[in-house]
Amino acid sequence: MPYSIGVDLGATSIAVAVGDDAGVRAAHLTPHLVEPSVAFVAADGTILTGQAAMDAAPEDRTRLVRGFKRRLGDPTPIFVGGVGTAPEALMAAQLRDVVAAVTEQYDEAPQRVVVTCPAAWGPYRREQFARISELSGVRVDEIVADAVAAATFFARDRRLAEGDILAVFDLGGRNTEAAVLRVAHGGPEVLGTPEGIEHLGGDDFDDAVRGLIDQRLGGRLSALDPADPDDVAILSSVDEACTSAKEALSVHEETVVRLNLDGAETAITLTRPDLESSIRPMVKTAVAALLRSIASAGLDPDDVDVVVLAGGSSRIPLVAEEVSSIGKPIAATHLPKFTVALGAAERARAWAAGSDHTMPARPDAPLETATANPLPTTILASSAPGTTGRPRVRRRSMLLAGLAVAAVAGAAIVTAASWSGRGETPTAASTAASPVASAPPTVVAAPAPAAAAAETTTATLAFPILTDGSSTTGLNWFVQSSDTAGVWGVTPLDEKEASRPNLQLTQTDAGFHAVWTGDSPAQLYAQSSGATIDLEDIADGGGALVFDVTRNSGAATFFEVAAHCGYPCGGAVDITSTINTLAEGATQRVIVPAACFTVSGFDPRAVDTPFVAFGTGALDLTFSDVRWEDLVGDDPTAVRCST
C-alpha cells in the first residue's frame, strides 16, 4: 500500500510517523519507538546515526556527537577527530537513515516525505536546513514548522472548527517553542511571532534531578572526574537514572534512584515536590514565552481556544499546571513525542491522496487531555548499559506464566482512543460510528451463535496477562477516566487498588474486579514497563485475545476491548453485545480473534499494551485468565467481527 511519512528531527530524539489510507500512526524505528538524536563520525568519514551511533560509541566516545541541531547555521563546523563536519551533514545522515529504515519495513519507499523544523527559525537557518534533502539524497516534499504540524494533527484529531485559535506549547529535550495558530481551510496558519528558547527542555530538568541527587550525596557526583574512564561509566549510568527518575515522577509522587558508587549501592528517594521546586523557575520562563507569543499576535489569552502541549517534557504535571495558569483549557495528544511527526505525516498523507486540509465542523464532545506516561517507581542505575532488544514469545506447550520484560523508559500511554473524536456518547445502537482517522478503528463484534458447540483447543503458544488474580511480571496496570471537567487522568494499580471517577479496580484472588459508574468513559489497561512485546507468531497462528469475564451486575452502554502497539497504532473491538447478553452472575470465556484487531491497524510485532477494557454505563465485571494464545481464533465460540 502506498504511504507517506512525517519526520521530526528533534534535538534529542527523532520521531517518524506513517500516513496512508488507514490514517496516521507512529513508525516503530526501535523498541523505544524514537531514535536518539546522535551521530557517530567514524575515522573514514562514515556517519552513523541513532541507535547505530550509540552502539558504535564504546569504540571511541570522542566521535559521538550530540546537540548538533542547535548548531545549524553556525559557520564553524563541528570537529570530530580533527575533521570538520557541518551540522546539516549530520542531520542529512539522520534523514537518510530513518527513511531507509522505514523503506525496509514497508518494502517500498514513501510516496511523500514531509520534514519539520522549529517555527522560530529565521530564513537563514531554514535555508541551511533545506540542504539536508540534497545532502541525504531524500526528496523532501515539504518543510513545515513544528507548530503547524502539531496543530494539524491536533485540529484534525479533535475536529476543531475553522477560525479556532490554538496555542502550541512544545517543550522538548533541549528547547522550548511557543506559537499561536488559526485553524484555516488550507491548514493551521501561524499568527504573530513564534517564541523559541534554546537550552530549556528535558535535559535541563535532568540536570535538576542530578543536582538533587548530588546534594543528597554531599557532592560526590560533582567530585567524579569526566576524564576518568571508570567515572565516565558511573556518570553515564547516573544520566540515564536521572532521566528515568524525572519521567517516573511525572506519574508517581516519589521514586527511588539506586546508584552503584564505590562498589556499594546507594538509594536516594526523590519526591515530585523535590523536582517541582527545582524546575519551577524554568517552567515559568517557558510559559512567559507562550504569553509573549500570544501577545505578538495581537491577542489576549482569552482569545485562545485551547493550548496544545507537545514534546516529551510536556508530560511533567507541573508543566500542565503552569500552562493552565493562563486560564485556558489545555490538551495533549496521546504520544507527545510524536505530535509533530504525526501532523507532518497527516499533511503528507493528505497531499498524496489529493485532498486538502479542510477542517471539519466542531463536534459537541469536549476536548480530551492525555496524561503522562506510566513508568516504574524504582530507577536502577547500572555501571553498564543494558540491552534493549524486543522480547519474542517462544513456542511452549504451556502458558508462559511470569514472563519478565526488560525495563526501559518510555512506555507509551494508553488513551481513550476509540472515544476520541466521536461527537456523542456511544450506545449499543450507534457503535458503528466512524472513529477519527488517527485513532485505531473499532471493529464491531457479535457473540457466537448460541448453537455453536464448544471445542477444546490446546494452545502451543501463549502470552499470559492475568492468571489466577496475578499479573504477569513486566506488566503494570492502570485505570484512566475523565473528571467532571472532562480532563483525563490516570491512576496506577497500587496496593491492589486503583480508583478514578467512573471506574474502581480491585485486584482479588479471583481476578480483577472492575466497577464502571455513570455514562462518562473509563478504561483499565495492562501496559509493558519495558520493551515492546512481539505477538506476531500468535497472531499468525490463528490466535486470539482470550479472557474469562463475570458480569456481576449492570449493563454496558458501550464496551470494547483493545490492544495497542504505540498509540495511535492499535485495534479495538466492540463487544457491547457480548457483555450485555451474558447472564448476571455468569462467567463466560470470551475469544476475540487477532484478525479483528489487525484488520483495523494493530501491529502484533510491537505491542506495548496487550489489553485494554474501555466502557461506559453502570457495570460490574470481574476479569480473570487474560491472555493471548494461538490456534483459538477459529473456535466456534469466538466472537464474530466485521468492520
From TrEMBL:
Keyword flag Cytoplasm: no
Gene3D superfamilies reported in the protein's UniProt record: 3.30.420.40, Actin, Chain A, domain 4 (3.90.640.10), Galactose-binding lectin (2.60.120.430)
Cited InterPro entries: ATPase_NBD (IPR043129), Exop_C (IPR041443), Heat_shock_70_CS (IPR018181), Hsp_70_fam (IPR013126)
ExoP galactose-binding-like domain span: 507-628
The keyword Chaperone belongs to this UniProt entry's keyword annotation: yes
Pfam families linked: Exop_C, HSP70
GO molecular function terms attached to this record: ATP binding; ATP-dependent protein folding chaperone
Keyword annotations: ATP-binding, Chaperone, Nucleotide-binding, Stress response
Family: Belongs to the heat shock protein 70 family.
Name of the featured protein: ExoP galactose-binding-like domain-containing protein
Originating organism: Microbacterium testaceum
